[in-house]
Amino acid sequence: MSKTWFITGAGRGFGKEFAASALGRGDRVAATARNADDLRELTAKYGEAVLPLTLDVTDRAAVFEAVTAAATVFGTIDVVVNNAGYGLFGAVEEITEQQLRDQLEVNLFGVLHVTQAVLPILREQGSGHIVQISTIGGVAAFPTLGGYHASKWALEGLSESLAQEVKPFGIKVTLVEPGPYSTDWAGSSAVHAEPQPQYEPVREMLRSASASSTPGDPTAAGPAILKIVDAERPPLRVFFGEQPTLIAPHVYQQRLAEWQQWNELSLEAHGARSSTEAPAAR
Question: Quick one: pLDDT at residue 189?
Fold first, then answer.
């Protein structure tokens, strides 16, 4: 049975690959982009199976209008992919307050707008799948990406709560956590803070590490997301690419070891008596 998709940021990168894979197998896609020209290739190839929508996800009213238009034209929405977003590069000392606010407006509040707009439709249907495009940077953090991580760590918490809230309505939620890919995420889509020379050694270290890694192929992400949305029991979290599968276990091993190292202090901080101790006899 074909599905109807609502995909933000569908004009390029992951969003375009997701849309092309869905359309290629006969699904229908409401594809949104800030620039309508970015959607021309999809509409030229797939015709009426594509509903092109110009959308800035930070405009809450426009988001609700776009979702309503998609539901009106296609009659249903089965899969929602919150893909629109960008990277903010800069050390925490370097980024401006406005840059961080703008990052949160797109990567977090944009997702909130879309999610809140589609939920009444999905609840009424008693079905649906919301796919949040996060990142390995949603569970691990790296230098000069603090603002970006702030948006994605917030997205992870928001989405995990969401998954528990909407499960009784038959709605599924998945966080996709990609590693580095050959997309425009770090290119023209990115925002860079004014660099301070004190942090140049940190940036040089990151450049050296990046030079030794092989980014993933974005065209492989399209078929992968089809398997997720077709699964009877899709994951809450799933990595895309090789690097997250190597990074995450190391990160969590470090966290567990440190928590255990400081476990005695944690119990002391509970107060006079931990929950494992029996009450003193009188």
Answer: 82
The H or E element that residue 99 is part of is helix 97-104
Tokens matching residue 277 = 């101790």
Which residues, given as ranges, of the chain have pLDDT below 50?
none
What span, in angstroms and rounded, lies between the C-alpha atoms of 19 and 9? 10
Name the catalytic one among 21, 86, 134, 181.
134
State residue 224's pLDDT score: 98
Helix (H) or strand (E) holding 209: helix 200-211
Domain edges within the chain: 4-241
Known active-site residue 134: yes
Active-site annotation holder among 16, 46, 86, 148? 148
What is the pLDDT, as a whole number, of residue 282?
A: 54
Q: Are 16 and 43 in contact (CB under 8 A)?
A: no
H helix and E strand count, the chain: 10, 9
In CATH terms, the fold of domain 4-241 is Rossmann fold (3.40.50)
CA angle 186, 105, 245 (to 5 degrees): 45
Of 16, 21, 151, 152, which one is the catalytic site residue?
Answer: 152
